[in-house]
């Protein structure tokens, strides 16, 4: 549509993070028409509920014949600190300055 064509020439991109209240097709379309160029999907807490919003975004792309970005934010590695077994010292690890210690996650 002509009313949205000028916004695609802008030099910056607007990003919106989708959440439970914005996963519906109507809200995604409203955000797109308001100027959002890229939708961020946070997969840190699971991906099972993100397929439908991604499909809605692709449908809008077809409807408006404009590219719409999807930014997928995935969970990085989590380093948990806990007790590591050491046969000589029970469950504690004592380190001296400069000593190397290797642990696997």
Produce a short descriptive summary:
This protein has 105 residues and is α/β, with parallel strands linked by helices. The chain has helices at residues 2-5, 25-33, 51-64; strands at 15-18, 38-42, 69-73.
Please summarize the sheet with the most strands: 3 strands, parallel
User: Which range best describes the helical content: under 10%, 10-25%, 25-40%, 40-55%, 55-70% or over 70%?
Assistant: 25-40%
Output the structural class. alpha/beta
Low-confidence stretches: none
Mean pLDDT: 80
Read across the widest sheet, the strand sequence of neighbours is 1-2-3
Q: Distance between termini?
A: 52 Å
C-alpha Rg (nearest Å)? 23 Å
**Sequence of secondary-structure elements:** HEHEHE
Tally of individual helices: 3
Q: What is the tally of beta strands?
A: 3
Q: What is the global morphology?
A: elongated
Strand-residue proportion: 5-15%
What is the topology?
Blueprint: H1 2-5, E1 15-18, H2 25-33, E2 38-42, H3 51-64, E3 69-73
Parallel strand pairs: 1-2, 2-3
Task: Walk me through this protein's architecture.
The protein is an alpha/beta fold. The model has no long low-confidence stretch (mean pLDDT 80). The protein starts with a helix and ends in a 32-residue tail after the last strand. It is built from 3 helices and 3 strands. Strands 1-2-3 form a 3-stranded parallel sheet, with helices on one face. 9% of the residues are buried. Helix 3 (51-64) links the parallel strand 2 and strand 3 (69-73). The chain has helices at residues 2-5, 25-33, 51-64; strands spanning 15-18, 38-42, 69-73. Helix content is 26%, strand content 13%.
């Amino acid at each position: 549509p002509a009313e949205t064509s000028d916004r695609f020439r802008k030099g910056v991109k607007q990003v919106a993070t989708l959440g439970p209240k914005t996963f519906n097709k109507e809200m995604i379309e409203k955000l797109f028409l308001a100027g959002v160029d890229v939708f961020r999907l946070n997969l840190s807490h699971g991906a099972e509920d993100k397929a439908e919003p991604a499909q809605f975004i692709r449908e809008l792309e077809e409807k408006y014949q404009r590219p719409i970005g999807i930014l997928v934010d995935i969970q990085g590695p989590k380093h948990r600190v806990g007790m590591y077994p050491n046969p000589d010292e029970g469950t504690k690890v004592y380190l001296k300055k400069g000593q190397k210690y290797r642990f696997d996650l």
